[in-house]
Amino acid sequence: MSLNWTLSEGQNPFAADDLCAAERRFHHTESTAMEDSAVANDIDAALEKAVSFLNANVKNESRYFLVEWDRSSSILRLAVTDDRKQQDATDVVCCRFAALNQQLQAQGAEAVEQCSEKVQFWLKDYLSSCAAFMDYSLVAVFTDSTRDRVRML
Length: 153
Hints:
The chain has one domain (6-152). It has five helices and seven strands, in the order ββααβββαααββ. It has helices at 36-52, 54-57, 98-107, 109-128, 131-134, and strands at residues 6-9, 25-31, 62-70, 75-82, 91-97, 139-143, 151-152. A seven-stranded mixed beta sheet has the order 1-2-5-4-3-6-7. It is globular, with a radius of gyration of 14 Å. The model has no long low-confidence stretch (mean pLDDT 93).
């Protein structure tokens, strides 16, 4: 199933406390995927959307392609950011997996952990073969906790 993207300027529709939201354009969507293959496809679509903004978002101060997975709400957030992971670029891509989240929360902490590991694998798999991403000198990093605790993809 294809994702329908919406643009929200100045407000992240999935997080009230997003960093410097007033200066951002949030390209967001909802995924109804629950099966692994469908979730992986929607993650690929979100990555493709984020990569399409690299030319506009990468500046001299850009260092990381930051992928955040919110375990408690199953929201994927993709952004180019600076050395300190505090100043995101203008275009941010967000995808909420509401149906998946409901399923994971019902299954418990182990299912949430396993899903986070799968998400990280799918991200790495996509980015390692994405020619458009390789055109930029960005370090792809992943977190499912805080920006201070990231892992390279």
